[in-house]
Design brief:
Layout (H helix, E strand, L loop, with lengths): L3 H6 L11 E2 L4 E6 L6 E5 L6 E9 L4 E3 L16 E7 L9 E4 L4 E3 L11 E2 L14 H5 L2 H16 L36 H11 L7 E2 L1 E2 L11 E2 L5 E3 L4 H4 L31 E6 L9 E2 L2 H6 L3 H5 L3 E2 H7 L6 E6 H12 L13
Antiparallel strand pairs: 1-4, 2-3, 4-5, 4-6, 7-8, 7-13, 9-11, 10-12, 14-17, 15-16
EC number: 2.7.7.6
Keywords: DNA-directed RNA polymerase, Nucleotidyltransferase, Transcription, Transferase
InterPro entries: DNA-dir_RNA_pol_su2, DNA-dir_RNAP_su2_dom, DNA-dir_RNAP_su2_hyb_sf, RNA_pol_bsu_CS
Length: 359
């Protein structure tokens, strides 16, 4: 890419513009090799559309960022050796993305439910944005998050922009509307009222339950749920651990010669679709063993090489015991399962497989 396209997508110094939209294959920067004098054009390789958020010059050039059109006031000095380009990729939440509150109550989104089917409050008609399992509260002991629920709810009802929701302090008065006991000069002066009493009285004055629980109605059936649900306003954030960056499926790669499993990293194939170590083996329909098959002498005499291997073998144990040839059935299973059967056999543990009659 030379000439007009470089001038169009990059600045005169070979750096992208702040706020520029970047697609796959677009030039993202132009690097000059001082030793050879050759200029190399680096391209954006991801399939997602991104925007240039910030450019950092390391080695004397300073940095600049901000909105579209923002430039470096001091210019780029000679001697800059490295450059860091920060890209912004807007993504909608998908199942598997990780979320967390500011109290460390993290969790993974299990289902993305339609807004019309979400439950709604019988008091205000508001539908919650996030519903999570309350069993995370005793394990992580995020008591401050429970108080933030009540404090955020009380602040939204009273219209106060800032509310101190510190769980390790006593409050003055009986709620946010108690102007008689509140200290106007120092609204956060310590008192003798606990957090749940302080914000509970505020919720009670607006017609809500004292501890923040509400009766929700089913969004699909319209009937009230049989239990009260603790509902309030809390700050939630999405973490950088997202499914689009963590899916681990590849077509080729190194495998262990003994177990035929990937040495490290992602799977060779999706386990739900096809096993990466799938192999065809023989199992005896009578005893269920996959370790006792062998080709009969007649098969070895008649066929040779691959032709003999393609013929159905016999079970040595059952054929010797019954005096007749018992043919084995072909099955497809993970190779690591056959390896596990051999390991169990070395410890005198026998695995028996059940084969259907229509094999």
């Amino acid at each position: 890419v030379k000439g007009e396209k470089v001038v169009k997508d990059l600045d005169y110094d070979g750096i992208p513009y702040i706020g520029q939209q970047v697609h796959e294959g677009d030039p993202i920067c132009r690097v000059l090799n001082k030793g050879t004098g050759e200029a190399k054009l680096e391209k954006y390789k991801e399939g997602e559309v991104a925007w240039v958020e910030q450019v950092n010059m390391i080695g004397g050039g300073g940095w600049w960022g901000g909105g579209a059109g923002a430039r470096n006031p001091g210019g780029i000095k000679d001697g800059s050796e490295r450059m860091s380009i920060k890209l912004r990729l807007p993504r909608n939440p998908v199942v598997g993305d990780k979320f967390s509150s500011r109290h460390g109550q993290k969790g993974v989104m299990a289902i993305l439910w339609p807004q019309a089917d979400m439950p709604f409050s019988g008091t205000s008609g508001i539908s919650p944005d996030i519903m999570f399992n309350p069993h995370g509260m005793p394990s992580r002991m995020t008591i401050g998050m429970l108080i933030e629920f009540m404090a955020g709810k009380a602040a939204a009802l009273t219209g106060m922009p800032v509310v101190n929701a510190n769980s390790f302090r006593q409050y003055r008065g009986k709620g946010l509307l108690d102007t008689e006991h509140n200290n106007e000069k120092d609204p956060y002066a310590p008192g003798d009222t606990t957090a749940h009493e302080y914000f509970g009285e505020t919720l009670k004055k607006f017609g809500y339950e004292y501890l923040g629980a509400e009766e929700l109605y089913s969004g699909m059936h319209g009937v009230p749920l049989k239990t009260h649900i603790y509902m309030g306003v809390v700050y939630y954030q999405r973490l950088r651990h997202m499914v689009l960056d963590k899916f681990q499926v590849r077509a080729t790669g190194p495998i262990d010669p003994l177990t035929r499993q990937p040495v490290k990293g992602p799977l060779l194939a999706d386990r739900l679709l096809k096993c990466s170590d799938a192999c065809e083996d023989w199992v005896c329909p009578e005893c269920g063993s996959i370790l006792s098959y062998a080709h009969s002498p007649e098969t070895v005499k008649r066929y040779s090489g691959r032709e003999a291997a393609a013929q159905a073998p016999i079970c040595r144990a059952c054929s010797t015991e019954r005096g007749i040839e018992v043919r084995c059935a072909a099955v497809t299973l993970p190779y690591v399962f056959r390896y596990m059967s051999a390991e169990f056999a070395s410890m005198n543990i026998r695995l028996r497989l059940r084969v259907q009659e229509d094999y």
